[in-house]
Design brief:
Blueprint (H helix, E strand, L loop, with lengths): L3 H6 L8 E5 L4 H12 L3 E6 L2 H15 L3 E5 L5 H14 L5 E4 L14 H29 L3 E5 L12 H21 L5 E7 L6 H5 L4 H6 L6 H10 L7 E4 L2 H11 L1 H11 L6 H7 L26
Parallel strand pairs: 1-2, 1-4, 2-3, 4-5, 5-6, 6-7
The structure holds NADP nicotinamide-adenine-dinucleotide phosphate.
NADP nicotinamide-adenine-dinucleotide phosphate binds next to helix 2 and helix 7.
Amino acid sequence: MMNLSSRLKELRDLKNRIVLITGASSGIGQATAFEVARRGAIVVLVARNELKLNQVAQQCMLYSGRPAFAFALDVADADAIDKTLTKIRHEVGAVDVVINAAGFGDMEPAVDTDPEVTERMFSVNVLGLIYITRQLAGEMIDKHYGAIINIASVAAKIPTPKAAVYTATKTAVLGYSDVLRQELRPFGIQVTTVNPGPVATNFFNVADQDGDYLARVANFTVTPQLVAERLVDTIGYHVREITVPRYFAAAAVAYHLFPTMGDFVIDQLFKSRTPKHVELSNGDQSDDENGAEDNSAADTDDPTEAPE
Ligand SMILES: NC(=O)c1ccc[n+]([C@@H]2O[C@H](COP(=O)([O-])OP(=O)(O)OC[C@H]3O[C@@H](n4cnc5c(N)ncnc54)[C@H](OP(=O)(O)O)[C@@H]3O)[C@@H](O)[C@H]2O)c1
């Protein structure tokens, strides 16, 4: 009988392993690509921006001394996923490790979030991840070998205002990965979720254009390199999930044990937030529940300008 644990252990040495990373053109995905390349892996980089992917691939080749591959793909496009994974199978080979990092957020109050943005976020953060994982997991089952690492978020453990849809997508990633782990463990396949807290990447330029959300969490921000190192250190181990930085894991446990207290603390941190929807519909009477008092904010584009 094959020793499945020792097969997984082989992945602790990444030399010449094929590692596919989505969202590799920037941030956590890019830092992870550099980290696995430093450890000798053959990287397969996936994202939409081909130019950036090629630059990352060049750098990876310098780090690893091995080939690196770039494939432009919108992970919200299920047909394109099929075609790209077929191409990768033929041009590169069977993937040993997949790291699903492609994703984006839109830090808006729930009532202000555009349905199209909601659908797009689910297509990229959840469905794209599920479709890619499903195909590669099937190949790993045949080999009795492989690792799947999905980037979720601390947002799925400790919910905060202005992140309802994003939190919903990342909670879906956690739930999907938890079941996948149970199903794939008998085949010796690792399934790990990574829950980063705020990370200094392009993420906030996309998700939080007024900088308000980042201002609330700036003190907790870590580098993408730290996330990448912690993530890559799990490869070859049956690690359930990691949280970066670690203290957010303790905070998440505290939140789930004492949710009312947790909501109070979050309320203090995010005080003075008022949905644009409420301000506009109330006209000269802003929703004061969270301390928002400046009625003139209803005339501005910025829903978060109420004084503290
Ligand atoms: N930064 C944080 O504070 C933080 C915290 C917790 C979790 N996360 C999660 O970590 C992951 C990486 O985020 P990041 O912080 O590294 O942000 P980032 O620098 O903005 O990187 C996002 C990556 O996702 C790719 N991407 C976005 N939409 C895509 C699509 N439709 N198809 C293919 N690729 C797509 C982007 O590449 P292209 O634009 O080239 O497609 C980029 O490579 C995301 O899942 C994010 O939700 C981030």
